[in-house]
Specification:
Distance between the termini: 63 Å
Number of strands: 15
Shape: elongated
Number of domains: 3
Length: 459
């Protein structure tokens, strides 16, 4: 079961409810046990003393086995044991309630909505505007959330964005293009570029390159070059060939890694056709170089194909989303108001719910049992004989105090649990025993009706 509530709150609710339920079970269990003991006493006239031990706390369920070497009342002991196990299971149950991200759909709000037709507001898709930042980060966010990168129908800055298939027009696909080519240190950039062209690793002649140079033009590093298969004026879907220097230092032999990228997004082809591809690649080349390395003196990144595809996706989204002047503040179409997202949910395992309802049923059953026993005891004609019978800790203490103060005529004064504060448990001087003594200044309770041991029902 999934609920859209913070898991901490859900665990707190379960813990509080389980605590209340088991508190009620404990109170009802003690009361029903006392009533059941009195009822057995009324029916049988006598019962073994251990059967009047009262309701055992869960921490003492093994005491009868250890101290008595037997279980005096198997049914009640089994009930206590089951509830003790159930209580421990609820501790585990609250621990397994956990948070989990669930793929869903969220309202889009405002952002950049791609138009597959219409002229770009700019002569070239701007590489240095917020649109490129939003489009690029949306892909990163989607990837981090476990979803796909691509050319999205609409993008914004929602950190929970997780692209669904319906959100994606498609994507650029970049693959390695042949084996890497090594050039001796000291080769000029022009020599490398011409050789790449002759080996069909870049389109020509309008390739665009960028590199990090020193004063000596033959010492360079981090060379990147890319090129379009179409001219600016062709208005056709273009593909891209690119090569990247894999080495870190200017004095290294240069290893050029080539890639070939094609657009796999039929619904976005009209956007690509409207882009002056050669001029746009020239405008975006410096960031292309920057994204291929982790800084000066570093080798190329491990995933140049994926990064180049991400960058070209960003380019298409900027071009398609820049039709309106307020292109970052557009609203989602009425027919498509949502986008894929991750929602943080709380997972409640089925067995936890089953345990929850089982505990509720146990509480209801214990309530009914207590009510039935109460009726049976209170309808018994000799109920007064067991009114103060020792059936739990406090009534047993009262019984012990009463029998320690037997009068000369054999009369036992009735002692109620509330009177126990008038008595002390004292060490007997010179012996290894203890005794019950009335506190000084306290008067003994008046003799009255109460449990004094079984004497028969009488008339």
């Amino acid at each position: 079961m999934y609920v859209y509530i913070d898991s901490t709150i859900v665990r707190l609710i379960f813990r509080a409810v389980f605590t209340i339920l088991f508190l009620c079970l404990g109170v009802l269990g003690r009361q029903s046990n006392k009533l059941a003991t009195k009822l057995r006493l009324l029916h049988n006239g006598k019962i073994p003393v251990p059967q009047a031990a009262g309701w055992l706390p869960s921490s003492a369920i093994f005491d009868p086995i250890w101290k008595l070497r037997h279980i005096p009342n198997v049914r009640w002991w089994s009930l206590v044991a089951v509830l003790a196990i159930l209580s421990k299971c609820t501790d585990l149950a609250t621990a397994v309630v956990r948070s989990e991200s669930l793929r869903s759909y969220c309202a889009f709000g405002n952002g950049m909505v791609l138009q597959t037709n219409g002229a770009d507001s700019f002569s070239l898709p701007p590489w240095n505007g917020r649109a490129a930042f939003v489009a690029g980060n949306a892909q990163v966010t989607s990837l981090l959330n476990g979803c796909d990168k691509g050319i999205y129908r609409k993008v914004n800055t929602d950190i929970n964005f997780c692209a669904s298939p319906s959100d994606i027009f498609g994507t650029w696909q970049c693959l390695p293009d042949g084996e890497d080519i090594t050039y001796k240190s000291g080769s000029t950039q022009d020599e490398v570029l011409v050789d790449l062209y002759q080996n069909d690793r870049i389109f020509g002649p309008d390739w665009i390159s960028a590199a990090t140079n020193t004063n000596d033009t033959q010492l360079w590093t981090h060379l990147v070059v890319w090129s379009s298969s179409a001219l600016d004026s062709s208005h056709e879907v273009f593909s891209v060939k690119a090569s990247v220097d894999l080495t870190a230092n200017r004095t290294d032999d240069k290893i050029m890694h080539s890639m070939y990228c094609t657009l796999n997004a039929p619904e976005a082809e009209d956007i690509a056709k409207a882009i002056p591809s050669v001029s746009t690649l020239a405008s975006w080349v410096m960031l292309f170089q920057g994204y291929m390395y982790n800084g000066m003196g570093t080798v190329a990144i491990n995933d140049p194909e994926d990064t180049l595809a991400w960058y070209l996706n960003t380019m298409i989204m900027v071009a398609g989303g820049s039709v309106a002047s307020d292109y970052l503040l557009n609203s989602a179409p009425a027919t498509d108001p949502t986008q894929g997202c991750l929602l943080m949910t709380t997972v409640i395992p089925t067995w936890v719910l089953a345990l929850f309802f089982l505990t509720i049923l146990a509480c209801i059953a214990m309530t009914l049992l207590t009510f039935v026993l109460w009726i049976r005891v209170n309808r018994h004609p000799h109920r007064d004989l067991v009114r103060n019978a020792p059936v739990d800790l406090w009534t047993w203490m009262a019984q012990a105090v009463a029998e320690s103060d037997v009068k000369a005529d054999g009369m036992v004064n009735a002692v109620l649990p509330k009177d126990l504060r008038k008595w002390n448990l004292e060490l007997t001087p010179g012996t290894t025993t203890v005794r019950i003594e009335k506190r000084k200044g306290e008067m003994a309770p008046l003799a009255g009706v109460g449990w004094t041991g079984y004497t028969g029902y009488g008339s």
